[in-house]
Structures are given as structure tokens and as C-alpha cells.
Amino acid sequence: MKKMLLLSIGDIKNIQREPLLIFSLFGILLLTTVIRFGLPELHTIFLSYTSFPLQPHFRIIVSLALLMAPLMIGMLYGFIILDERDEGVLLFYAVTPITKTGYLFARILAPIIVTFIISFAAVLIQGLIVWDVITFLPVAILLALQSPVVTLLLASLASNKVEGLALTKVINLMLLAPLLDYVISHPIIKITAIFPIYWPVKVFSESDSGNYWWNLLTGFVITLIWLIFLERMFRKRME
């Protein structure tokens, strides 16, 4: 545990050197604040000039905003790994008491914890959707598990930070998965459910339906399959 703490202290120093990384860490809280005060006003404006009400869609909008937490934090830790790879630090950790397994565990656990905390902070700030702790706790865990998916995607597929920046644009497109399913009712769109990032939105936006626990279980299974696959890919990359 002491070794994990030392790694985390090093991460804080890395984040402090990059203002963009700090913004990515707190951007989700800023976004949910804007949603809390801006979305009702936007709803009023829409009703004034069109017949399209935004209020029935508040839940999906808040769900997508919550999804920004694992995306941003996962990318943050992904870039930390890419930095360490460029500097040759990964090889150093492999021959220290931390070992490759300890390093990988720390890099998976840290974004999970940070995302879990920020997800709760974000859902408290948003103030538009009624929620309770018992219902949101599993959703927060599922959201938190998306962070290491994003982190391992970056670390496994990108060779350096330049490739990582290009890959983030592709990863951001995964936000379209739950949105397409919400907007389009065609059965073929259900293929987006293969992406783990689809399921936290599905569960939170339909938490009042009778499929809550089924969606939650499916989301956990798909996310764990992705994590196992990406973890093995990352280990091969480390070797």
C-alpha cells in the first residue's frame, strides 16, 4: 500500500505540471454546474420559440454529462502511463519491489477511486434529476470501472502521446453509443451495447424502469470482459 501511495504522489506532481490535466480533472464538476443552471433556462427558451420541450430529456443529458468523468479521468491516467513509457519509467518499475503487477494494479485502482468520488460530487451538483444513494451507488461503481477501460485503451493502443491525442478523438466518439440508442429506435443500433461506456448511461437514464438490475448486471459483465481483454493487451505491451 505504501508503494501505491508513492505512485499516487508522483501522479499528483505530473498533474500539477499540466494545467490541461487539472482542467480535465475538474471539468466534469464545471459541466454539471453549467447544466444545473443553464439547462432549465435553455428549456424555457426552447418552449418560447419552438414546441420542443427539453425537460423530458434532462435525464439522458445528465447521464451523458456523468459519463465525462470516466472519459476525462481515464484519459488523464492514460497520458500519465504514456509519459512514463516515453521516459522509460515502466522498465524501472518492473525491476523494483512494485513489480509490473503492482504498477498495473495502481494504474487501474487510482482512476476508479477518483471517478467514483467525482461521480458522486457531479450527481450532487446537477440538481435536476432526483436520485437516491442506494440506486446511484451501483451506477457510480459502473461509471468508475469505465475509467480504467479508457486508460488501458490509450496505454495499449498508443505508442506515444501524439498517438494518444489522436486516439482520444476516437474514444470520445464512444459517447455516441448511448446517444444513438436514445435517438434512434432501429434494432441495429443496439450493437452499440457492446461498448461498456453505453451501460452507465443506460442504467442511470432508465433507473425507474423494471430493467434496472438486468441492465446493471449486463453492464458489469461487459465492462469486466473489456477490462480483462485490455489488461492482457497492456501486459503484452509492457513486455
Keywords summarizing the entry:
single chain; 239 residues; mainly alpha; 10 helices; 79% helix; 0% strand; transmembrane; Fluoroquinolone transport system permease protein; membrane; transmembrane helix
Q: How many beta-strand elements? A: 0
Could you say which structural class the secondary elements and strand pairing correspond to?
A: mainly alpha
For the sheet with most strands, the description reads: none
Estimate the strand proportion.
under 5%
- Helical content (DSSP H or I, runs of 4+): over 70%
**SSE string:** HHHHHHHHHH
Global morphology = globular
> What is the CA-based Rg, rounded?
19 Å
As residue ranges, the low-confidence spans are: none
Enumerate how many helices there are, as a single number. 10
- What's the number of domains? 1
- Summed over residues and divided by their number, the pLDDT gives a mean of 83
Intertermini distance: 24 Å
Description:
With 239 residues, this protein is mainly alpha-helical. The protein has one domain. It has 10 helices and no strands. The two termini are 24 Å apart. 36% of the residues are buried. The mean pLDDT is 83.
In a nutshell, what does this entry contain?
With 239 residues, this protein is mainly alpha-helical. It has helices at residues 2-17, 19-49, 58-86, 89-94, 99-126, 133-157, 161-172, 176-183, 198-205, 212-238.
List the helices and strands and how they pair.
Layout: H1 2-17, H2 19-49, H3 58-86, H4 89-94, H5 99-126, H6 133-157, H7 161-172, H8 176-183, H9 198-205, H10 212-238
Helix pairs in contact: 1-5, 2-3, 2-5, 3-5, 3-6, 3-7, 3-9, 5-6, 6-7, 6-9, 6-10, 9-10
Keywords: Membrane, Transmembrane, Transmembrane helix
Transmembrane segments: 20-39, 59-82, 103-129, 135-158, 179-199, 211-230
Protein name: Fluoroquinolone transport system permease protein
